[in-house]
Amino acid sequence: MASLLHEVWEDEDGVSVFVSDGRPQQFVKNDARLVATFEASSWTEAMSKYYEMYDLGVYKPFASSSELYSEELRAHQIEQLNAIKIEGG
Question: Which residue in 32, 39, 53, 30 sits closest to 4, CA to CA?
Fold first, then answer.
């Protein structure tokens, strides 16, 4: 069973953004700060952890979101993270 890194970012307005590929995406503001990282083996598990963090109740998944992450997806994420490390020095 593969697990992926997930990140939660918050900006100065208190808006939180959930990122599942291990790096900030375009919708993460420049003033955002990383507040949590965790691993999960499916989107449902990841969102359940996110909901728990912000006391949003119980996450109700779509059927397809319970599918476990593949080893290929994990390998792709590791490639992305390694590329970021190389670029960032």
Answer: 39
Distance CA 75, CA 53 (A): 27
Residue 61 is which amino acid?
Answer: P
3-class secondary-structure state, position 7: strand
Beta bridge partners of 37: 7
Q: What percent of the chain has pLDDT over 90?
A: 33
* Maximum distance among all Cα pairs of the chain, rounded to whole angstroms: 41
> Which two tokens mark 11?
């900006």
- Give pLDDT tens digits for 8-46: 889 888 888 887 755 556 667 778 888 999 999 998 999
β-partners of residue 39 are 5
Q: Is 38 within 8 Å of 47 (Cβ atoms)?
A: no
Chain CA centroid to CA 8, Å: 6
Question: What are the boundaries of each domain within the chain?
Answer: 4-88
